[in-house]
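S., here's the first fold you wanted:
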Amino acid sequence: MSFYVYILLCSDGSFYTGYTRDLDARTNLHQNGKGAKYTKAHKPQKLAYVELFDSRSKAMKREREIKKLSHQQKLDLVNSRDEK
């Protein structure tokens, strides 16, 4: 089973990082204010970054790693995908 780690760019320029099995359903929840407390207050603007994993534990580990990054490091990560 596949799991996704994703970063949402919020309307205030902040980032929200999460993981899920169903990326479309989860991003729709965030857009409708039901995905997470953070995204209720910081409206998601777009899906900025995605990584695919073959296990929940790997996805959770990567989510924790990304959440520890500074804002600039997250921005660099998002931009690195745009360049490819």
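And the second, which I think is the more interesting of the pair:
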Amino acid sequence: MHALHPQVPRNEVIHALRERVKELTALHSTVCILQDDALPVREVLDRVVRLIPPAWQYPQITAGRVILGGLESRTRCFRKTRWLQAADFRVSPALGGRLEVYYLKKMPQEAEGPFLAEERNLINSLADMLRAYFERRQASAALMDAHRDLEKRVRERTAELEKLNAALKAEVHERELRQQEILSYQRQLRALSAEVILTEERERREIATDLHDVIGQTLAMAKMKAGALRGRCLAPELAEDLKGLASFLDEAILAMRNLTFQLASPILYELGLESALERLAEDMHRRHGLKTEFRSDGLRKPLPTETSVMIFKAVRELLNNSLKHARASGVRVRVRRTSGRIVVTVRDDGRGFSAGEERNCASRSGGFGLFSIREKVSHLGGAFRISSRPGAGTLAVITAPLDRRKDAAKDTDLRRP
């Protein structure tokens, strides 16, 4: 551009200003074109290349070309000449571009051949604007591709998760059905187990009754007859033999009574659970030397027959464990009533055991071991808890619900005048 100086002719100043207006017009028009990201690349190149001739000093002999990768846009009557002004730009490592301006004939020498210095700035600005525009479009396209790819992956993953979720729901439902079946089987087994206990107890009671009524009475009659014969016998040797026979009969009667009590305590059915437990404690002390202390709070405790039988058998098993396995010298049995439940505790002073030994202790206890006690008590609506430490003895607690119907009936009888 010619320097504006007071001595410069007026027409030259006007010419220079017109050139700058043309350059600004080209830049503004290019900005307007590059604001639309929806235009096809070919149309962007065509519109920009048409802005080149009017923006240069000699529009009538100016030709232009824009190259982007494999695309190319030219002005009409374009041809290459040796009067070239060019600017390269790079959109990405794989995509480059070039802006070219040719004069079709020789013109006066300026700052860069026949081209003005301002025209160098202009072509560099246009090249930089094209670079920024296509970089933005390329980044936007990459972002859109990434977005579409992400949406596709999300849809695919969502579909997979929906399938997995459906399969998981089906599996959970199947497991719930299996769990319900297992619980049903467990309830049936517990009910069957309780029925087996009651059936076994009835059979034991029948056997005990037969022992008492048949064999017991027979032994008693035999003892009476031996006594009568002994009174009438005059031979000393025979009298002494009858005395020995009577002694054997006494031992047989005592053994029969003990066996009858072990099979089925008649006290349990005639006088109730607490009387049977008290007799059991006395029997353990008398027969095995295990000091067994029994105490009760004296309150009424109406119980279903199966509950009484279960608690009696459980306490007997716990006492046997204290004697055989814990090697205890003393046991305390307590029975009390609280909140509509019976609570029976059995505490011994034996050697105790660790938590890991409870299973072994249960297996050594036979058919009515600790695990069996817990299962049977649970089936009757109660609970069984056992705690022990090596060298600190063992505490077992059995709780079971009372018979509310019997309790209510008794309360009604007590309120009657």
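Why I say that: Residues 362-367, 412-417 have pLDDT under 50 and may be disordered. The two ends are 132 Å apart (CA to CA).

Talk tomorrow,
H.
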